[in-house]
Amino acid sequence: MPLLAAALLAGCATRPPASDPESLAEYEQTNDPAEPTNRRLYAVHQAIDQYALRPVAVGYRAAVPQPVRTGIRNVLGNLRTPVILANDMLQGEPRRAGDTLGRFVINSTIGLGGIFDVAERWFGVRGHAEDYGQTLARWGVGEGPYIFVPVLGPSNPRDLVGFGLGIVSDPLSWFGQGAVVDGLVYGRTGITVVDTRESLINTIDDVNRTSLDSYSTLRSAYRQRRAAEISNQGEVAPAAAGSTGYGVGTGMDQQRR
Amino acid sequence: MHDFNRRTLLGAALALTATGFGTLGFPGPALAQADIGRAANFIQTTGQDLVAAINDQSRDIAARRQRVSAVLRRAVDVDGVGRFIIGRWWRQASAQEQQEYMKLFEETLIRNLSARFGEYQGVRFSLGRSQQRTEDDVLVNTIIERPNSAPFSLDWRVAEIGGQPKVVDVIAEGTSLRLTQRSEYSSVIQRNNGSVAALLQAMRGQIQQLAAREQGR
Q: Which of these, A145, A193, A227, B149, is most buried using a 10 Å CB contact count?
């Protein structure tokens, strides 16, 4: 965090003068006062993505058959239940909380530890994602300025705080110590990153190929999508939303109905 | 009583004129009210045309892509979307730049969309719920299903343009295509010190790349 703060202070976009109301309106609409710094961080991310994240995701897609990948995604989604349930309740959504709890019970048992999404297939109860960033938004906390974090993706102070709360509040991170537990925690994190990136291969390839400025495309897409997720409108929430900014954001190829 | 009769009469007259305009296909008033059923039908027909074009095994990929772009040109309000996307920079552009922008925009949009839909071999779609968004547009939901991948949902924003329903935006996962692209284009212009010419140059470069990729297949 201190590093981030220092980086943010280092490069700020110049605010247009009041004599140019249209530019000023757009500047405020874009909500990216630290744009020069964010763009540098984005360039770092693009390099990491090109040489590490994407190749690993592509390899994963090639090596692991789709039914297995779906099972892995289902397990990851099931493991996120405590966080999703807590946020359903914090947002005062008893019906959605009931869905989340019911899904957990059914999928963990009949669904063999969450591998099979029986709750959706047999009972028609679809999963949804929630996180602390969304809850904070529902409580009236503003998003704050846009921030791009390498590996994590597009974000903002509110969603970053929510991301941190999601980690510390997850009961799975409370228990035990030692190599085995650490291994499981890191393993889960690693698989989440790979799974999330795999779900985004086509989407991000498209953006990189067709956008004249992928940085601003991602920024705009992330903010629009977050707004839709927060309002719980439409069919936006992926069941196994990962813990990265992209995952909370953009799994376009995931099932939604 | 008298008043009431007069009002019903007036209402009936208005309704008659409105349906008259509708069925005869006269261009209605500038902001014609969108009709949900009409918009949904329009997306149903357009979607069927698109799916037929994409899945047409009797043609090679180039011919298929051409058929897809013909459907898109007919269904999308290209001019309106183009103007929306360039937004405030339109007025900064010279008449010649405006003209070239429109040409390049149409080509970029159609090429991008047909390249993307062209990959959707074996695609099927079904109509979801439609809802009135504002006075003059309707959001029509579709579910897109492709072999070997999970179905996803696409929303089409449909408005009456010159008395015809047209697509004015596509929304995936809460993300509007035209809003995203507006921010992209504006960013390109801003980063080149407000030069619309720089955007046009970038668009030309992109069209060349797209064309090269199409050749490569």
A: A193
Tokens of A235: 């069919």
Tens of pLDDT, residues B70-128:
999 999 999 999 999 999 999 999 999 999 999 999 999 988 888 777 778 888 889 98
Q: How far is CA A251 from CA A90, A154, A177, in A?
A: 24, 13, 33
How large is the ipTM?
Answer: 0.83
Contacts of B174 in chain A (CB under 8 A): 224-225, 227-229, 233-234, 236
Q: What is the mean pLDDT of chain B?
A: 83
Predicted TM-score of the model (pTM): 0.83
Gyration radius of chain A over CA positions? 19
Domain count, chain B: 1
For A53-116, the three-class secondary structure string (H helix, E strand, C coil) is HHHHHHHHHHHCCHHHHHHHHHHHHHHCHHHHHHHHHHCCCHHHHHHHHHHHHHHHHCCCCCCC
Indicate whether B213 belongs to any domain. no
Domain range enclosing B168: 5-207
Find, in chain B, the residue whose alpha carbon is nearest to that of A235.
Answer: B173
Q: What is the CATH number of the domain that holds B119?
A: 3.10.450.710
Residue A149 exposed, middle or buried by CB count within 10 Å (0-12, 13-18, 19+)? buried
The residue whose two tokens read 């990729």 is B213
Q: SS3 helix, strand, coil % of chain B, rounded to 5?
A: 60, 20, 20
B202 CB within 8 Å of a chain A CB: yes
CA gap B131, B20 in Å, rounded: 24
